[in-house]
């Protein structure tokens, strides 16, 4: 089953390498347990993966609702789909906010300027406004390169379960894995 696990991480690694080429796994849907106890799902950009550690990373605004939700219940589920290949990857894991200033700073500096604009917004995500324009940062001088850094949050997900589904025309196959003591265990299941 090692080749299936390697394939999953290779597809996720390609997704996280969007600076080179965007792949079907660059955007994932991330589901959390809402503050009201119900499921909440949204799109995130996969920013990094570590196949060895079985973890991945995404960026978000520390003021967003998902950060509050994950603070209360760190369980998270992520889903990606390659519609052309007929491959679905479902992940379950536990999220942690990265505290290290050095790590946050390094990824902030590696990010493209346009992807950091959202962190400079005066109002927290989800704040009611009279019109969309009200959310835009006021035009003016070129912002300080660190403006908004205080809102920049790195979320690492330690993946604990993988559900891989291949519904390509010649091959209907599904495999489930879970991580124990740093190794993946699992096998085929019926699709
Ligand atoms: C293409 C696309 C990519 C997105 N990438 C991210 C992302 O990487 N991080 C993020 O926090 N929100 C991202 N969003 C916005 C989220 O889907 C969501 O609307 C926002 O984070 C607020 O979610 P929340 O209220 O559940 O925290 C993206 C949205 C789209 C459409």
What would the principal axes of the Cα set say about the shape?
elongated
The average pLDDT score comes to 94
Q: What's the total number of strands?
A: 8
**First-residue to last-residue Cα separation:** 16 Å
The CATH architecture is Roll
Number of helices: 4
Q: Bound small molecules, which ones?
A: flavin mononucleotide
**Could you name the CATH class?**
Mainly Beta
- Helix/strand/pairing class, anyone? alpha+beta
GO molecular function: FMN binding; pyridoxamine phosphate oxidase activity
InterPro entries: Pyridox_Oxase, Pyridox_Oxase_Alr4036_FMN-bd, Split_barrel_FMN-bd
Keywords: Flavoprotein, FMN, Oxidoreductase
Domain Pyridoxamine 5'-phosphate oxidase Alr4036 family FMN-binding: 11-98
Model description:
This protein is of the alpha+beta class. The chain has a single domain (2-126, 142-189), classed as Pnp Oxidase, Chain A (Roll). It contains 4 helices and 8 strands. The protein has a 6-stranded antiparallel barrel. A hairpin with a 4-residue loop joins strand 2 (39-50) and strand 3 (55-61). It is elongated, with a radius of gyration of 18 Å. The model has no long low-confidence stretch (mean pLDDT 94). The structure holds flavin mononucleotide (FMN). Flavin mononucleotide binds at residues 27, 40, 42-45, 58-61, 64-66, 125-126.
Question: Quick recap of the structure?
Answer:
GO terms for molecular function: FMN binding; pyridoxamine phosphate oxidase activity. This is Pyridoxamine 5'-phosphate oxidase. With about 190 residues, this protein is an alpha+beta fold.
């Amino acid at each position: 089953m090692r080749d299936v696990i390697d394939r999953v991480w290779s597809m996720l690694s390609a997704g996280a390498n969007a600076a080179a080429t965007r792949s079907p796994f660059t955007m994932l849907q991330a589901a959390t347990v809402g503050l009201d106890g119900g499921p909440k799902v949204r799109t995130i950009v996969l920013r990094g993966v570590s196949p060895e550690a079985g973890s991945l990373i995404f960026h978000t605004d520390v003021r967003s609702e998902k950060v509050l939700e994950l603070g209360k219940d760190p369980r998270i589920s992520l889903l990606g789909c390659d519609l052309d290949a007929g491959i679905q990857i479902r992940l379950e894991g536990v999220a942690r906010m990265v505290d290290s200033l050095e790590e946050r700073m390094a990824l902030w500096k590696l990010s493209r300027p346009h992807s950091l604009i959202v962190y400079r917004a005066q109002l927290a995500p989800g704040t009611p406004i009279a019109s969309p324009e009200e959310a835009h940062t006021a035009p003016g001088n070129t912002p300080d390169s660190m403006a908004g850094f205080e809102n920049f949050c790195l979320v690492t997900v330690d993946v604990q379960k993988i559900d891989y589904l291949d519904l390509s025309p010649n091959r209907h196959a599904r495999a489930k894995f879970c991580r124990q003591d740093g190794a993946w265990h699992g096998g085929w299941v019926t699709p």
